[in-house]
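Schema walk-through. Below, the input block comes first and the output block second. Nothing else is stored per chain. Lengths vary across the set, and this one has 357 residues.
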Amino acid sequence: MYLEVKGLEKKFGNFKACDQVDFALEKGALAALLGPSGSGKTTILRTIAGLENVDSGEIVIDDKRVNELPASQRGIGFVFQNYALFRYMNVFDNIAFGLKTQKQPKNIIQERVEELLNLVGLTGLEKRYPSQLSGGQKQRVAFARALAPWPRILLLDEPFAAIDAKVRRELRSWLRETISKLKITSIFVTHDQSEAIEVADLIVVTNHGRVEQTGSPLELYRSPATPFVASFIGESTILSDYGCLKGFNKAPKGAVCAVRPEFIRLFSPNEAIQYENCVQDGLVERVSFRGNVLEVKVRVGDFSLVTDYSLERPPISLGDKVKVLIYRLYAFEGVTQARLVSNDGLKSQNNGYNFEI
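--- output ---
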């Protein structure tokens, strides 16, 4: 592994920002640190960069322990959330700053800055000052400045947070394509799961200073290791006692679960349903248009569930009575384990589960 974080701990007073943090990245990987505010993401990033000292644990880059190395000697490029551009320097000088600090020859600086201006799509804007740039352009300058001294690792602290939604979507694709082209090991911090899923090869999910799970976006979505990951990744509905649902009546009393939208099927009262013994009555509480699907909120007994409904299905409206089939859910066993459970009513006598999803 190219970057390894081992047993990392960091306290601020009595607050433990990092608690036995462990993860590793291969060279060239693009990873996201994903979690809610206060979960330790930025602290992890800053300790890797050398901007914060660790209380215990190891940070290893290319088989070398770097705990005692100052930030300037770790080979880290850092992109700050607020860009941190020098307002009195033009674009060229902002990008060239690290190279000048390294005392690189003028011809090398010129060539490198021109190369990066072309890479980030800002050729022709080198004489402009930060006040003359859009948010997206400022972020590209900050990205180029971090790359200028040929870093071994690139760290980005919520790089899209200060940018409007449309530009943010464009920059996501641009960032992924650019980092893939450069093959530089990179980590970015975000609390936006859609951002992490779209951009990252690997996601490290953090919560209360600990790593809940590390894996690809697909692994985290399909196989959450803990209740927190099951509820945080995807748009899940948390139920406090799923034993009252048809087909799940073997659950212990008060058992908690998460139900993903794709685990639910809605049917009109007149539709023929193969598994009538698993279906419950529901009442449509909300219908929201989401482009290619409808997002439907439906009440089943004491619970309200949210699911997607295809535009190709029979029309559905607020106040409609529907039949609801929940065929799968994530059951929580304490706070450390999430287990995928299928509806017992879908078992055929001879073939086990044969519900077509």
